[in-house]
Amino acid sequence: MPKAFKPSVVTANALLEGDVVYMGASGWVRDLAQAEVLTDEADADIRLIEAQAQADTVVGVYLAEVDPDGPTPTHFREAFRAKGPSNYAHGKQETA
Amino acid sequence: MYSYTEFDDAFLAERNAQFRAQVERRIDGSLTEDEFKPLRLMNGLYLQLHAYMLRVAIPYGTLNGRQMDQLAMIAERWDKGYGHFTTRQNIQYNWPELRDVPDMLDALAEVNMHAIQTSGNTIRNVTADHFAGAAADEVADPRPVAELIRQWSTDHPEFQFLPRKFKVAVSGAPHDRAVIKAHDIGLRIVERDGALGFEVIVGGGLGRTPMIGKVLYDFVRSEDLLPTLEAIVSVYNLLGRRDNKYKARIKITVHENGIEDIRARVDARYALIRAQFTGVDQQMLARIEADFAAPAFVEKSIAPFEAAYTNDPVFRAWADTNVDAHRAPGYAIVSISLKAHGATPGDATADQMRVMADLARRYAHDELRISHEQNVILPHVHRADLPAVHAALKDAGLGTANIGLISDIIACPGMDYCALATARSIPIAQEIATRFDALKIEHDVGPLKIKISGCINACGHHHVGHIGILGLDRAGVESYQITLGGDGTEDAAIGERAGPGFSADEIIPAIERLVMAYLDLRQDPSETFLATYRRLGLAPFKSALYPEAKADAA
């Protein structure tokens, strides 16, 4: 049985800096809170294709599941990507 | 140390210029990511969880003060002021930006360093005993032959697209400090009838299918070494399982074909190619060996050392754990711990790198080594200078007296940085070190190697840890599996899985129960954790790890 679609965001790494980015309503954003939450699978597929077409800007595009309340990550890997490493206040937490 | 020739300098300059152009073409859109990725990986550039990561080779772990200073400069100028020394004798920068990497590579080339073959399916940075050239038990310095192998393998046209990465380690001593039995090829310099040669071990490796290497040849003469290596890698290149990346390492090739079949194939290949090696490599080796001539050791009184050892308990504790015997009278090998309690294993700030570079110049004949255990070595320090070295290290936060003890933990970057990881390693290492520091039993526990990997690829060498910890993702939760009884020395052994994994909250108390059980079980303080484990087996330690299971069974 196919896995039921869950609310997701489109995410990737920025080509120049390498840091985690999310697709917002009008472009790539650094903060998960500003990401566009996709609740419909067909919409998500379209946004994913749009994102993959921006290979001159981002690398490694994929859909990451989120809790739409926030949104917040549902998996610890995405939580680390959204925050930064746990040993130093580097990455996104540096400027939060 | 090996001194680069004009050829070496020109090669690096050309290679860096080539990569600079490739980066520009990626940024302007001429290259797709699919086209660019293999090119950046050939130059040590990964894209990790939060940023790019540049992996720089420190061939056979050897560098001098100028090179360490340059690593510090790069950390400050293009990164966040620190670097991470790895189990493969590399340094990794965790935060470079793509457009800066060509400048970083040029800065490395200024001091004869590079990032070539620190990634990709090729022969990786050749590693060696970190006490090379200094160890009291050494038969011969392994670095000249490691340098020869580096030169032979760099850009070797036949071996740039192997089935998988390929790792070679070299040791020149009977006590294995280079984990040679867990490498694709492990070489140990041995003496027979007054001549030096090599024991050649193949098919070792950790990761998904951990295996201890098998002896392919017990003695290969020096002049036959390169054709032998070429024949081995050539046979692997042909037989390696390109259909399945998880089965693509030579350990699987050896396992599936058997060591006798591999030996027959290598013999046949060797017979075909031997004549191509005309002896030029031995002329090269002679030149390289001259570069690695021992420094001019001096004779002086060790009274300052004896006075400090008698009068200063802090110095004594450090000298007991961080100082090893040297082959020259009056000298010692100093291991600088990059494992301050609560710190990230293997990390050094730019300032700390400069302190170590300065100490190398002032007290260690301008030599430094990086160990696979993520520490830094000053290989040639006169005992008279040890108090001054210790004082400077303490001031820099580098004076932790814990080499070989429970807080001297190998930990891969784990999911804090690595895109492949399935759980974090660093916080677990930090918490274990902090906990046992609080308990003040670290020195009582004695020699104990804990090694932590954040995924099955085993960059943290957990399989050969006396206590190994493997971080996994269990239904979206970090889970840590314990293995016991692993050993990375000449008595190499793969650890035995103890049972179900522990959550991040449970793992520190579990390790504490394990260590407390050892203290109860050992015959006397001289019996190490590993010796106790080998005497008693898994059962009593398993009972300590899983007391509930014991109660349920009662």
- Mean model confidence by pLDDT of chain A: 95
Number of strands of chain A: 5
Strand element count of chain B:
21
What is the count of helical runs of chain A?
Answer: 2
Task: Show the largest interface.
Answer: A-B, 25 and 31 residues
Helix content of chain B: 25-40%
Structural class of chain B: alpha+beta
Shape of chain B: globular
The residue ranges of chain B in which pLDDT falls below 50 over 5 or more consecutive positions are: none
Radius of gyration of chain B: 23 Å
Largest sheet of chain B: 6 strands, mixed
The biggest sheet of chain A, with number of strands, parallel, antiparallel or mixed sense and barrel status, is: 5 strands, antiparallel
Shape of chain A: globular
GO molecular function (chain B): 4 iron, 4 sulfur cluster binding; heme binding; metal ion binding; oxidoreductase activity
InterPro entries (chain B): NIR_SIR_4Fe-4S (IPR051329), NiRdtase/SiRdtase_haem-b_fer (IPR005117), Nit/Sulf_reduc_fer-like_dom_sf (IPR036136), NO2/SO3_Rdtase_4Fe4S_dom (IPR006067), NO2/SO3_Rdtase_4Fe4S_sf (IPR045854)
Domain Nitrite/Sulfite reductase ferredoxin-like (chain B): 52-111, 345-395
Keywords (chain B): 4Fe-4S, Heme, Iron, Iron-sulfur, Metal-binding, Oxidoreductase
Task: Walk me through the structure.
The complex is a heterodimer of chains A (96) and B (554). With 96 residues, chain A is α+β, with helices and mostly antiparallel strands. Helices cover 21% and strands 28% of the residues of chain A. Chain A contains two helices and five strands, in the order E-E-E-H-E-E-H. In chain A, strand 2 and strand 3 form a beta hairpin. The model of chain A has no long low-confidence stretch (mean pLDDT 95). Chain B has 554 residues and is of the alpha+beta class. Chain B is 39% helix and 18% strand. Chain B has 19 helices and 21 strands. In chain B, the strands form four sheets. In chain B, strands 16, 17, 18, 19, 20 and 21 form a six-stranded mixed sheet that branches. In chain B, helix 7 packs across helix 8. The chains are: A alpha+beta (96), B alpha+beta (554). Chains A and B meet through helix 2 of A and helix 14 of B. Chain A: InterPro entries: DUF2849. Chain A: This is DUF2849 domain-containing protein. Chain A: It comes from Sulfitobacter albidus.
